[in-house]
Design a protein that fits this description.
Length: 263
């Protein structure tokens, strides 16, 4: 059996003549006792903090700007340009704050800002129906390219922001296991990059398919088929990315989380 320490509190070992170790860890509110051959002390992050660290960036950088756009454009009747402009305020502020405070780019906030800027530019584009259908794929192409570049050349793949919360599940031990694996395990980092490569490739393929369809198929067909192509690309990315990267990473996190207890 393994000894347990609570929130990195010091433990005192006493060894009797038979070689058995009695370990007692004391906190301000109670005492935990265990016996075994070794002691593992883990500096645990509170569960609420782990959940906050995992989900807040995703909510603030991606969900809130998109929600703001739809609330302003659909709920309050604001024009497309104005809604995109106002919904870009938060990701713009987050991008600048990351550069000023941490000397690094907040990748997810910068991506949402880039998508909104592309939307602003395209809002002034007009032409025939086929051009209107083709320009809908521009956002996917921007996201796909940024995700691919982050996977190949970035320090942290873009899709990690969405993957990590679902793998660690707000569990402090799993969050610590993720950080350890990301720091020292090449196979884990390779799977992390593979996840972004799959998503970036799927979004770029969706863009190409919609542009080709816009100029080769009847307009009436592409009006509904464009959404089908997008849906297929997302489902394919989820299935392939899950099999090649997310599932193996989750198993590695499971094993890493269990390793201290087994030691």
């Amino acid at each position: 059996m393994s000894d347990t320490a609570i929130a990195a509190q010091p433990a005192t070992d006493a060894t009797d003549a038979s070689g058995t170790t009695d370990s007692t860890g004391t906190t301000g509110t109670g005492t935990g006792t265990g016996t075994g051959t070794g002691t593992t002390v883990t500096a645990a992050v509170p569960r609420k903090q782990a959940i906050r660290d995992s989900f807040v960036p995703l909510l603030v950088d991606a969900v809130l700007p998109m929600a703001a756009y739809y609330a302003l454009s659909k709920g309050f009747g604001m024009g497309t340009v104005a809604a995109l402009g106002w919904s870009s305020a938060l990701p713009a502020a987050r991008t600048v704050w990351g550069l000023v405070k941490h000397r690094r780019v907040n990748g997810l906030a910068a991506l949402i800002l880039a998508v909104n800027l592309v939307g602003l530019v395209l809002s002034g584009v007009s032409g025939d129906a086929r051009l209107m259908l083709a320009k809908d794929s521009a956002v996917s192409s921007v996201v796909g390219l940024v995700v691919l570049v982050s996977a190949v050349a970035g320090r942290r793949p873009m899709m990690t922001n969405g993957l990590k919360p679902w793998v660690v599940k707000g569990n402090p031990a799993r969050l610590a296991a993720w950080d350890r694996l990301a720091a020292r395990d090449a196979r884990f980092r390779r799977a992390e990059r593979t996840f972004s490569l799959v998503w970036g490739s799927a979004l770029l393929a969706e863009c190409v398919a919609r542009v080709v369809g816009a100029y080769t198929l009847p307009v009436d067909t592409m009006v509904w088929l464009g959404n089908v192509i997008l849906g297929v690309a997302i489902v394919a990315a989820m299935v392939i990315g899950g099999g090649l990267a997310a599932d193996p990473m989750e198993k590695m996190v499971d094993a890493e989380t269990a390793a201290p207890a087994a030691g």
